[in-house]
Amino acid sequence: MTNCHRILTIAAKISAIKLRLSQMQNGLELPFATGENMKTFEELNFPGRLIAVEGLDGSGKSTQIYLLKRWLEAEGIKVYFSEWNSSELVKSATSKGKKRELLTPTTFSLIHATDFADRYERHLLPLLRAGYIVLCDRYVFTAFARDVTRGCPPDWVRGLYGFAAQPDLTMFFKAELEVSLNRILEGRPKLKFFEAGMDLRLSTDPYESFRIFQGRILEQYMAMSEEFNFVVMDANQQVGKQQVLVRKLVSEKIDLKKFKRRSPLPLPPPAIRLEDKSKEVEEDIGATV
After folding, report:
1. Cα(163)–Cα(99) distance, rounded to whole angstroms?
2. Cα angle at 18 between 14 and 20, to 5 degrees?
3. CATH number, span 40-260+275-283
4. ∠ CA 117-121-124 to the nearest 5 degrees?
5. pLDDT by residue (tens digit) across 10-41?
6. Which among 180, 172, 151 is positioned nearest to 224, based on CA atoms?
7. Where are the chain's structural domains?
8. Burial label, 33 (beta-carbon count in 10 A; 0-12, 13-18, 19+)
9. Which residues lie below 8 Å from residue 177, measured CB to CB, with a gap of 6+?
10. Least confident of 97-106, 129-138, 166-175
């Protein structure tokens, strides 16, 4: 895709989102993301199932969902993985905006909604229709928590994601703030600007800003945990103990036999060392915003 085409596509998606917001402000009734009206993919009769993980930066959720993916693949399950802010459509633009510290709370909200909408339409729905188990490292609840903490109106944010269905299983990895902070700093020397909430001018000290910002996000998550049926996981435990519970929960919630591949996955090329990739992921727990 050329840069020109990419920009036009982004503009079209953001325009559609802005139109939706305008319709909301004019009193038109549109789908609204609440636990009451969001149906799961199972309730919508999709052949596939979607599992989402949520948590603060440094909670270890990314390691847990990666280990879950590896286990499901080893069991011969049809599985697909998607993560927040990974759409090729907007990823580079988001990265540049963060580096230059140009993103306002509203811009952040719109660009992440565009990212999610693009992945939802082009990746998640097709794979769910094909009978895959889709694993999402962050879902719309990340926007509900972060964007509201950054000052966007809750109804405004939830209105952006009214098209989305509810995951069939959402695990929230709850870790103490100091645990999350220490995990991040084990992987790199300092906190990122937006990760620490420095754009909100909460404190001149990035570590104190992180504690305040992430603490407020945690409050948002806990406030909606019952509404959206989160399964709250103790993310302070050792990685192995958490993974045992994750696999048990998934096996109880989903009949995995229905998602078995008809033929085994091809072996990876000799140059690929999966153990190195596993170690790399575990060392980078929750390091992205």
Report:
1. 30
2. 115
3. 3.40.50.300
4. 100
5. 545 554 554 454 444 444 444 667 888 899 99
6. 172
7. 40-260+275-283
8. buried
9. 56, 210, 211, 214, 215, 218
10. 97-106
Question: What would you measure as the largest C-alpha separation in the chain, in angstroms?
Answer: 59
Please give the pLDDT value at position 270: 52
The residue type at 121:
E
Distance of alpha carbon 198 from its chain centroid, rounded? 21
259 Cβ neighbours under 8 A, 6+ residues apart: 48, 49, 77, 78, 79, 131, 132, 133
SS (H, E, C) the chain: CCHHHHHHHHHHHHHHHHHHHHHHHCCCCCCCCCCCCCCECCCCCCCCEEEEEEECCCCCHHHHHHHHHHHHHHCCECEEEEECCCCCCCHHHHHHHHHCCCCCHHHHHHHHHHHHHHHHHHHHHHHHHCCCEEEEECCHHHHHHHHHHCCCCHHHHHHHCCCCCECCEEEEEECCHHHHHHHHHHHCCCCCCCCCCHHHCCCCCHHHHHHHHHHHHHHHHHHHCCCCCCEEEECCCCHHHHHHHHHHHHHHHCCHHHHECCCCCCCCCCCCCHHHHHHHHHHCCCCCC
Query: Which residue type, as a one-letter code, is found at position 5?
Result: H
Residue with tokens 């729905």: 125
- 161-213 pLDDT per residue, tens: 999 999 999 999 999 999 999 999 998 889 999 899 998 999 999 999 999 99
